[in-house]
Amino acid sequence: MPSEPDDWADEVPVEEIKPLSREEAQRWRARQPQMSAWRVVGWQWSLMFAVSLLAALATRQASVAWSVFYGGLCIALPSALMAYGVTSSPLTRMVVRWFPGAARLSLAGVFLWEGIKVLLALAMMWSAPRWVPNLSWLGLVAGLVVVLKAYWLGFLFQRRRPH
Predict the structure, then answer these.
(1) How far apart are CA 50 and CA 46, in angstroms?
(2) Tally of domains within the chain
(3) Band of pLDDT at residue 151, cut at 50, 70 and 90
(4) How far apart are CA 68 and CA 51, in angstroms?
(5) For position 1, what pLDDT does the model report?
(6) Do residues 68 and 128 touch, judged by C-beta distance below 8 A?
(7) Cα distance between residue 6 and residue 13, in whole Å
(8) Cβ-Cβ contacts under 8 Å for 95 (sequence gap 6 or more)
(9) Are 37 and 76 in contact (CB under 8 A)?
(10) Core-most of 34, 54, 106, 150, by most CB within 10 Å?
(11) Is residue 139 part of a domain?
(12) Within-domain flag for 2
């Protein structure tokens, strides 16, 4: 028969959580890689065009190339919109100007723009058969997956750069 949950607490050592000082937090932030949202968007658009061209050359079928392109566009366009919304929109600039330490408002903005990004991506995928003649679903998914991997590519090349 299993023991009660109170008995388990005695078996696992619990470390006390100590908040970081201002200096410790600054040192921790300095060690974290910095990545611009626009850099990721640039990688996404570059990969979208490259993989579409590769699909066109490999299959010699325009429908496959357009399907791959549209699949990538389903990720790259909403990501560009989110990057604009989070970094450059007039509302974001106004919030940063009026409330310089408004981290909570910034986080709420990220959640808002992430929701818009996901809804736009879903709407674009749902409407793919209407916009791409002779849609290749495999090509669309390939474009989606490759462009989604741009985040990893951006982080990989960001880490290799000297600081």
Answers:
(1) 6
(2) 1
(3) confident
(4) 7
(5) 53
(6) no
(7) 13
(8) 102, 105, 106, 109
(9) no
(10) 150
(11) yes
(12) no
